[in-house]
């Protein structure tokens, strides 16, 4: 029963555990052999595990005073797992400083190795729209608003065609005439009695209000006609 438990624990342990134990106990040759067997050819299928194996092999080379191989393995380890944090309980301070220097000196190579491992991001292709021709752009830039806007009162057509001064004058004068006419008509109707007639005292005021109503209405109609005439007849059509 004990043998089964031990076998189960060993099967669940990391494949790097024997090499890690050999490195910690100072058996560098055995640690190197274990790691080289796992990496060449590659027997590890997870990037963090592969990165840890390369860094552990780099530490082994570093302890054996083989800096060239140690530097290469450190680059491969950081390329496989760039966010790896070295355990200070496992690695000595001089090796941690060595890896920090490698990370700085070979940052471009490490980034290239990391990018090679990441699958390209798939972005949905956008439907291509044809580029407008110069003639289309010219037509868009020179197209003027419809002259039918001149049929709208209060100078709307003049504002649409960029004639702001004429539009302001028409808006103010037509608005004032319409307001005077509507106010006069409303007041005159309010003065009527239940029988629809004015009292003797209100008759004079009602007569003035009716005149004011008619004058305002005619003035509004005249100004509206002038605005339409000015926009459609007196103003030349834009080329």
Essential attributes:
Tetratricopeptide repeat protein; disordered N terminus; rod-shaped; transmembrane; transmembrane helix; membrane; Serine Threonine Protein Phosphatase 5, Tetratricopeptide repeat; 239 residues
Describe the structure.
The chain has helices spanning 2-12, 17-24, 28-39, 47-63, 67-80, 93-105, 107-117, 134-142, 156-160, 164-190, 203-234. It is mainly α and 239 residues long. It folds into 2 domains: 14-117, Serine Threonine Protein Phosphatase 5, Tetratricopeptide repeat; 147-234. Helix 4 runs antiparallel to helix 5 (67-80), helix 5 (67-80) crosses helix 6 and helix 10 (164-190) packs antiparallel against helix 11.
Largest sheet, described in full? none
Radius of gyration: 46 Å
CATH class of the largest domain: Mainly Alpha
Termini separation (Å)?
A: 101 Å
Keywords: Membrane, Transmembrane, Transmembrane helix
Transmembrane segments: 169-191, 211-229
Protein name: Tetratricopeptide repeat protein
A few lines on this structure:
With 239 residues, the protein is mostly helical. Helix content is 67%, strand content 0%. It folds into two domains: 14-117, Serine Threonine Protein Phosphatase 5, Tetratricopeptide repeat (Alpha Horseshoe), CATH 1.25.40; 147-234.
Question: What's the layout of helices and strands?
Answer:
Blueprint: H1 2-12, H2 17-24, H3 28-39, H4 47-63, H5 67-80, H6 93-105, H7 107-117, H8 134-142, H9 156-160, H10 164-190, H11 203-234
């Amino acid at each position: 029963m004990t043998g089964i438990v031990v076998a189960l624990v060993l099967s669940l342990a990391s494949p790097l555990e024997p090499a890690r134990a050999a490195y910690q106990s100072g058996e560098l040759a055995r640690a190197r052999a274990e790691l080289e067997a796992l990496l060449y050819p590659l027997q590890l299928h997870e990037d963090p595990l592969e990165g840890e194996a390369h860094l552990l092999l780099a530490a082994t080379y570093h302890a054996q005073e083989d800096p060239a191989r140690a530097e290469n393995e450190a680059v491969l380890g950081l390329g496989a797992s760039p966010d790896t944090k070295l355990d200070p309980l496992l690695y000595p301070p001089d090796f941690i400083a060595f890896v920090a220097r490698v990370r700085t000196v070979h940052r471009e190579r490490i980034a290239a190795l990391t990018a090679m491992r990441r699958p390209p991001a798939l972005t949905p292709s956008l439907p291509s729209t044809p580029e407008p021709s110069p003639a289309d752009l010219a037509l868009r830039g020179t197209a003027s608003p419809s002259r039918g806007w001149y049929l709208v009162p209060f100078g709307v057509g003049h504002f649409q065609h960029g004639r702001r001064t004429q539009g302001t004058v028409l808006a103010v004068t037509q608005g004032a005439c319409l307001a005077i006419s509507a106010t006069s008509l409303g007041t005159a109707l309010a003065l009527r009695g239940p029988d629809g007639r004015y009292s003797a005292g209100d008759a004079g005021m009602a007569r003035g209000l009716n005149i004011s109503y008619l004058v305002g209405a005619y003035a509004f109609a005249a100004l509206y006609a002038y605005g339409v005439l000015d926009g459609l007849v007196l103003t030349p059509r834009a080329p």
